[in-house]
Write a structure and sequence with these properties.
The protein is mainly alpha-helical and 112 residues long. The protein starts with a helix and ends in a 5-residue tail after the last helix. It folds into 2 domains: 52 residues; 51 residues, no CATH class. Helices cover 75% and strands 5% of the residues. Strands 1-2 form a two-stranded antiparallel sheet.
Length: 112
Amino acid sequence: MSQEEFKTMLDELVAAEEERLQVGSEDFLRRHQEIMTLIGEAEQYQEERRQKVERQFIGAKEVAEILGVSESKAYSVIRGLNKELKEKGYITVQGRVSRAFFQERCYGVKVG
């Protein structure tokens, strides 16, 4: 089969599938818009969840800014705090620490 024959066959298959699906019809366009709206809502929800989780944790850059130290020192602080949390049985994430625990340990502030 030549490339030209293959291209023609592929074009025919695409045309047949578009006809079967009624691509371009009012119903197809309406369903497409509904799907795109649902995808948009799901993406927005996912972004809101990501931001909420991100607010619960603090990274080295923010620790460095708050404490007025270098990022390498901030990582050292985070490692120490995470070590304390691990000893208490908590799950930790390397390079990030609970914002509430950071505030409690660094400033004596009780959060929540």
